[in-house]
Automatic annotation (TrEMBL):
Region (Disordered): 1-21
One Pfam family of this chain: PseudoU_synth_1
UniProt keyword list: Isomerase, tRNA processing
Pseudouridine synthase I TruA alpha/beta domain ranges (all copies): 48-157, 197-291
Entry keyword annotation includes Isomerase: yes
Annotated family: Belongs to the tRNA pseudouridine synthase TruA family.
Biological source species: Brassica napus (Rape)
Catalyses which reaction(s): uridine(38/39/40) in tRNA = pseudouridine(38/39/40) in tRNA
Name of the featured protein: tRNA pseudouridine synthase
EC number of the protein: 5.4.99.12
Signal peptide: none
């Protein structure tokens, strides 16, 4: 193990402050870097993003760009994140070994996407790195959490299940504030019928849950949530769009809820395609990724996980009378 402390990457600072909206002194950040380790250090990220910008047309479901994969044009979440990380760490893209929990289709959003990357150096604190990272990322992407990870942790292969939520806006016209995050149907959907049909998915075909299958917000918004485990977590994002489309047909009362067990019995998604096309991607959001508990433990001699920090006012400059 080397006894030298690596200097802060010069690209991170310009005349003593970060080249981002969050000004942090060079001396401050240098104090967060610890001695090098040939084995490297692994870091886990929890990321939220609005997938609209990274999708092109929200209604395209075939031959589209994926939000989590590397390509510069059209931009992806991964390419934006790697660009920020390379500027902060002064490491090359290939040295970071950035890996996501999985891909999300174009137009799909995330609240709990997970990724990991590695560095040849450690940090004693992560708050400033966290702030710098969000300062360099576009406003559609935010790192919610950054923490140290044990060597065994792998964003993709340590995954146990994924939770997705799909939003449907059922009213005569679309709420303009929901247009990028919910699928609009002008039909008045029968939530009871949809809930009845959704129960056929519970515990079936490696779905560990189809929880809150027709949760309503007291108005026009329906939320359907599904957790896929086992082999299903790899393809659950595609299945959710197909399931939602089927449940919408049931909600319209164009199909009877008894059609669901019949389709499940065939074990063939092509059978479902006979009744409906997949729902558009923009109503879908990756809520969380669940992992093996032992893979989420903090390694020894690691900094505390950063959840971001609030700004505070140290002195009030307003006069009092």
């Amino acid at each position: 193990m080397s006894s030298a402390t690596p200097a802060l990457p010069p690209s991170l600072c310009t005349k003593g402050s970060l080249s981002s909206p969050h000004n942090i002194s060079k001396t401050d950040l240098n104090s967060f870097v610890k001695i090098s380790d040939p084995g490297g250090f692994k870091w886990r990220l929890v990321i939220a993003y609005d997938g609209t910008k990274f999708a092109g047309s929200s209604f395209r479901t075939v031959t589209v760009s994926l939000s989590w994969q590397y390509q510069e044009s059209p931009p992806t979440v991964q390419s934006m994140l790697e660009k920020a990380l390379t500027q902060i760490t002064k490491l090359q893209r290939k040295e970071l070994h950035l890996v996501g929990a999985g891909r999300t289709d174009a137009g799909v959003h995330a609240w709990g996407q997970v990724a990991h990357f590695v560095t040849p150096f450690n940090y004693t604190s992560l708050d400033s790195i966290h702030s710098a990272l969000n300062g360099l990322l576009p406003q559609e992407i935010r790192v919610r959490e950054i923490g140290a990870a044990v060597p065994e942790f792998h964003a993709r292969f340590s995954c146990r299940s994924k939770v997705y939520r799909y939003q449907i806006y059922s009213d005569t016209f679309m709420d303009p504030f929901q247009r990028h995050f919910a699928y609009h149907t002008a039909y008045k959907l029968n939530a009871c019928k949809m809930r009845e049909a959704a129960q056929h998915f519970v515990g079936k075909h490696d779905f560990s849950a189809f929880a809150n299958a027709t949760r309503e917000d007291g108005g026009s918004l329906l939320q359907l949530e599904v957790e896929g485990s086992g082999f299903m977590y790899r393809q659950v994002r595609n299945m959710v769009k197909s399931i939602v489309a089927l449940l919408v047909q049931v909600g319209k009362e164009a199909l009877d809820s008894d059609i669901v067990p019949m389709i499940l019995e065939t074990k063939d998604r092509r059978e479902l395609a006979k009744y409906t096309l997949p729902a558009p991607p923009h109503g879908l959001c990756l809520v969380s990724v669940k992992y093996k508990e032992d893979h989420l433990q903090l390694p020894p001699d690691s900094p505390l996980t950063s959840f971001g920090r609030h700004h505070t006012i140290t002195k009030c400059k307003l006069p009092f009378y």
